[in-house]
Amino acid sequence: MAISFSCSACSQKSSATKLTWFFALLLILATMIQVRAQPPTAGFVNIDCGWTNSSAYIDNTTRIVYRFDGESVEGGLSHEISEEFMAGAANEQQKTLRSFPDGPRNCYTLASIIGKKYLLRALFTYGNYDGLNKTMDGSPFLFGLHIGVNFWESVNLTNTDPSDTVWKEVITVAPSNAVSVCLINFGSGTPFISALELRPLEDTMYPFVNTSVSISYFQRFRFGNITDPITRYPTDNYDRFWQRWPDTSYPWINLNTNNKVKSLDNVFNVPSDIFQKALTIDTNYSHMSIIVATGRNQDGKSLQLLPIFHFADINERNLSRRFNIYNAEDLLFPDFSPLRFQMDSKYKSGEFLHADAFFNLSKTPSSSLPPLINALEVYSLVRMDNLTTDSADDKYIKEVKTHYNLAQRNWNGDPCSPREYSWEGLTCDYSKSNQNPRIVTVNLSTSRLRGGFAISFMNMTSLENL
Ligand SMILES: *[C@@H]1O[C@H](CO)[C@@H](O)[C@H](O)[C@H]1NC(C)=O
Ligand SMILES: *[C@@H]1O[C@H](CO)[C@@H](O)[C@H](O)[C@H]1NC(C)=O
Ligand SMILES: *[C@@H]1O[C@H](CO)[C@@H](O)[C@H](O)[C@H]1NC(C)=O
Ligand SMILES: *[C@@H]1O[C@H](CO)[C@@H](O)[C@H](O)[C@H]1NC(C)=O
Ligand SMILES: *[C@@H]1O[C@H](CO)[C@@H](O)[C@H](O)[C@H]1NC(C)=O
Ligand SMILES: *[C@@H]1O[C@H](CO)[C@@H](O)[C@H](O)[C@H]1NC(C)=O
Ligand SMILES: *[C@@H]1O[C@H](CO)[C@@H](O)[C@H](O)[C@H]1NC(C)=O
Ligand SMILES: *[C@@H]1O[C@H](CO)[C@@H](O)[C@H](O)[C@H]1NC(C)=O
Ligand SMILES: *[C@@H]1O[C@H](CO)[C@@H](O)[C@H](O)[C@H]1NC(C)=O
Ligand SMILES: *[C@@H]1O[C@H](CO)[C@@H](O)[C@H](O)[C@H]1NC(C)=O
Ligand SMILES: *[C@@H]1O[C@H](CO)[C@@H](O)[C@H](O)[C@H]1NC(C)=O
Ligand SMILES: *[C@@H]1O[C@H](CO)[C@@H](O)[C@H](O)[C@H]1NC(C)=O
After folding, report:
1. In sequence order, what are the beta bridge partners of 122?
2. CA 315, CA 257: separation in Å to the nearest integer?
3. How many helices (H) and strands (E) does the chain have?
4. Among 392, 77, 375, which Cα is nearest to 222's?
5. Using a 6 Å CB cutoff, which residues line ligand 10?
6. Helical H runs in 203-361?
7. What is the rounded CA–CA span in Å between residue 51 and residue 172?
8. Using alpha carbons only, what angle is made at residue 197 by residues 212 and 83, rounded to the nearest 5 degrees?
9. Which end of the chain, N or C, is surrounded by fewer C-beta atoms within 10 Å?
10. Which of 418, 351, 417 is nearest to 381 (CA)?
11. Top-confidence residue, 198 or 9
12. Residue 133 pLDDT > 90, yes or no?
């Protein structure tokens, strides 16, 4: 009945980006959650794409309220996954999806607070909804994601199990009172999406993320003896997905404690549960290697990665534990000693690595104990360099669109940016490279437009020609 859990990292250490949900384990989690007080979900935006009922529902496991996507997207078609995968779905979001057979770019718009930091997650469960066996037919099945007007990541479902749920996350600063996510058709299969989740973060978190730098999830692991394949809300107030590190056989050794682990700062707000477990290695060994290199379906060569290591020594006895932290051959953090029962995160703010995500924790000669680790996050750089259309022009052209009900023209997302996805019929001025592009002409002759022009045209000061 359950969709089996395929932990790609178990059999193949290098590609741990996909999962199928563990139905039975999530049920156990659900019973636990009901007796626990839930942290607040204020500001969470939860959209079940392709869900057609405008009444919201409460997710059986997380108790988070999900809504349909009718108010956040134009166009697209709603579908259900094929019958054979229905029974195995771990939640309602996996059962429906929205596909976008038309148009090169289709965007979702989610309300946000300008300048606020968010985690945004998009989830994809193909479930052979179209009956075409697209993930397994041998041809490439690939589409793109934009965050606003910037390229975020590709979703590569080529040769994946149709029951797999793939997710992508980005940590970003809202550029306005809305965040948009666009699906880009590369001509290699119809883009689709199953769910969208927006989670507000504290502004102090991930300090290297700002209006010009976002980061995309590459890997996020927690270590130790953990039951759930994924730890998320309500253990994590921000609903980050922490995958269980799959490799715990000898010489790896699990540590855990019931003692409280203190936190002194709020840079990452990692749940204290995560610090109560750790992974170390048999004392006969002097170093541990953690390989989270690019997966089969991830194009890692062009990525610039930023690792964040989370440590707390939870050994009962006060013995010295010192180690060097390497990325491949490069020494990132020399002679590090984790604090006892206190969280300590190591990262280099804003410094992205060009090498593979291969880390080596190596005991120093003076140390009595081997290295240990509690959690690891790795992100890739997403540059937010492209400028959005001048805000007045954007506002007015959107009024025009509404006035003439021009939804069928696939006027979707930002009018002028990025350039290759600008709205059909618009001419934009990109000549001033450090200024927002402006709309120069609007040619509506291809639309079946009748009647006069809207007043709002007149206010587009840069408009030369109608
Ligand atoms: C929508 O959901 C509500 C509440 O769950 C239910 O009462 C209603 O019958 C549903 N409507 C349709 C058309 O399925
Ligand atoms: C959630 O619970 C409802 C009501 O008990 C049930 O009908 C539905 O199948 C459940 N969904 C999943 C995915 O378990
Ligand atoms: C999908 O394609 C794979 C590989 O060609 C094949 O083994 C499988 O039986 C197909 N499944 C369906 C449902 O057609
Ligand atoms: C910015 O826009 C240009 C031109 O449209 C595009 O080629 C480029 O990929 C975009 N950059 C990002 C970071 O998305
Ligand atoms: C992991 O923890 C469970 C109980 O939580 C225990 O039964 C099991 O033996 C532990 N496994 C290891 C390898 O420590
Ligand atoms: C670890 O070292 C001890 C003492 O040197 C030795 O007795 C034991 O066999 C070693 N264990 C392994 C697995 O190598
Ligand atoms: C997509 O994944 C397939 C199968 O793993 C791989 O062969 C292909 O190179 C990937 N494409 C891109 C653009 O990453
Ligand atoms: C642990 O040991 C170190 C070095 O031996 C010492 O400086 C420190 O005070 C000890 N901490 C505790 C809590 O005993
Ligand atoms: C954003 O952060 C990066 C480093 O992460 C820094 O180089 C850049 O100057 C910052 N930009 C702004 C606008 O603060
Ligand atoms: C890890 O670092 C240690 C010490 O520098 C070295 O001996 C070992 O070969 C390294 N391991 C790998 C797999 O590179
Ligand atoms: C407007 O677009 C139509 C169709 O693409 C074209 O024939 C016409 O010349 C355009 N008008 C202007 C003023 O560019
Ligand atoms: C458009 O411009 C006219 C004349 O300058 C002005 O009266 C009107 O308020 C403007 N409309 C908007 C929506 O800004």
Report:
1. 168, 196
2. 8
3. 5, 29
4. 375
5. 287, 289, 326, 360, 362
6. 272-275
7. 26
8. 135
9. N
10. 351
11. 198
12. yes
β-pairing, 195-200 vs 165-173, is: unpaired
Cα dist from 321 to 266, 282, 331, whole Å: 25, 13, 18
Ligand having the closest approach to the CA of 137: 3
> Is the shortest distance between the CB of 461 and ligand 12 below 6 Å?
no
Question: Which residue's CA is the closest to the ligand 10 atom numbered 8?
Answer: 287
Q: How many alpha carbons fall within 13 Å on the CB side of residue 65?
A: 9
252-256 sheet: strands from edge to edge = 252-256, 277-281, 372-373
> So what's the pLDDT on residue 461?
56
CA distances from 297 to 153, 156, 160, 301, 444 (A): 12, 6, 9, 12, 41
Q: Which range is least confidently modeled, 61-65, 240-244, 247-251, 338-342?
A: 247-251
Q: What is the set of domains in the chain, with CATH numbers?
A: 45-200 (2.60.120.260), 218-383 (2.60.120), 391-459 (no CATH)
Pairing type for strands 213-222 and 242-244 reads: parallel
User: In this structure, are residues 439 and 427 in contact, taking their beta carbons and an 8 Å threshold?
Assistant: yes
Q: What is the CA radius of gyration of the chain?
A: 24
For 231-240, give one letter per residue: b (16+ CB within 10 A) or e.
bbbbbbbbbb
Alpha-carbon span 289 to 35, nearest angstrom: 39
Which one-letter amino acid corresponds to residue 295? G
**Two tokens, residue 236:** 């994590």
Ligand 11 midpoint to CA 419 (Å): 19
